[in-house]
Specification:
This protein is α+β, with helices and mostly antiparallel strands and about 325 residues long. The chain has two domains: about 130 residues, no CATH class; about 180 residues, Rossmann fold. About 25% of the residues lie in helices and about 35% in strands. Helix 4 packs across helix 6. It is globular.
Length: about 325
């Protein structure tokens, strides 16, 4: 671990609960600990002051001028957002420009170590990325799989709707339009999926909403707490019945096309790359996606400018759910 200087005592220790699992977060730099706490505040995690049991997951953050060496001979491949993954049977590494993550499957609690090369700033996107990867990688070991998507609930019903797509595909805009029209919401961008009694359940993970300005004069997203904007309530979890795969067409009118179960499954796999990247849990992840594809009715949604008209998004999506 050349270049990494770890203090004898951690600067910060904290516990969080999510979906019945207990996370222990340990940080060996006070400034870094403050940034990590700020990131955790943006997720739907519950702070635990005095845990009554041992944690399921331990994530350690360290700061230094170098990163540990990844062992030679591991299978490696590139992942989204500029990362490189190195995998073995019982562990894997995820490397970015200024950070490195290591997860071991043969330890209890599940152990994740994160090393940061240099002091990050408050808006450091890589720190947010590697921290999210650390939490989600650990949760996958307990049957909770992340999905890059939004979740809403049809008003006056328990009908769950997922909105799935890459960054810039209009997920947050569509979720915000629906929430403004009285739809309950889980999250606008990040969900956790789990399987219970052969039903897939979705719960929100990211707590804030983030929208790109309509006039596109800035590439920065505007973040806000949805409870301060929408009258509709945040929903804890839902069993989804519909999934919409979004893309922005630039046309005036929105186009919808119903998908077959096989097409829905293919789209879900593309949206969940760790279902194949993370070999230790790939089978369970693919089983969950298969159950989800059977559970929902899928649609391809090419968003037009008409979705920005008041009430239009609610009218279009609600028509499909009926």
């Amino acid at each position: 671990m050349t270049g990494i200087q770890v203090l004898d005592r951690p600067a910060s220790q904290s516990f969080y609960a999510v979906a019945g699992r207990l996370l222990f977060i340990e940080c060996f730099d006070l400034g870094l600990a403050t940034l990590i706490e700020r990131l955790f505040a943006g997720w739907q995690l519950t702070s635990v002051s005095f845990p009554e049991r041992n944690p399921d997951i331990k994530i350690t953050f360290a700061l230094g001028h170098g990163l540990p060496q990844v062992p030679a001979g591991l299978h490696q491949f590139e992942v989204a957002e500029g990362g490189r993954c190195y995998s073995a049977s019982d562990e894997y590494y995820l490397e970015f420009a200024n950070s490195l993550l290591r997860l071991r499957d043969d330890e209890s609690p599940v152990a994740v170590s994160v090393w940061i090369r240099q002091v990050p700033c408050r808006t450091d996107a890589e720190l947010a990325r590697v921290t999210s990867f650390a939490v989600c990688a650990a949760l996958r070991r307990f049957g909770m799989f992340e999905l890059h998507g939004a979740g809403v609930v049809v008003p006056d019903s328990e009908t769950g709707v997922l909105i799935v797509g890459p960054s810039g595909s209009g997920k947050s805009t569509l979720a915000s339009e629906l929430a403004s029209a009285g739809w309950g919401y889980l999250s606008d961008d990040e969900l956790l999926l789990s399987l219970s009694d052969k039903k897939v359940e979705a719960r929100g993970f990211r707590s804030f909403f983030a929208l790109t300005p309509v006039d596109l004069t800035s590439s920065l997203k505007s973040c806000f707490e949805p409870a301060r904007v929408f009258a509709a309530p945040r929903v804890h979890s839902v069993v989804p019945s519909f999934v919409f795969f979004t893309a922005i067409s630039g046309a005036k009118e929105t186009q919808l096309h119903e998908l077959t179960q096989a097409e829905t499954m293919s789209r879900l796999i593309r949206a969940c790359p760790w279902a194949t990247y993370d070999t230790a849990i790939a089978g369970a992840n693919l089983q969950l996606l298969s159950e989800l594809a059977r559970q929902v009715k899928g649609f391809d949604l090419r968003a037009g400018t008409d979705l920005l008209e008041p009430g239009r998004a609610s009218l279009i999506i609600r028509a499909c759910t009926h």
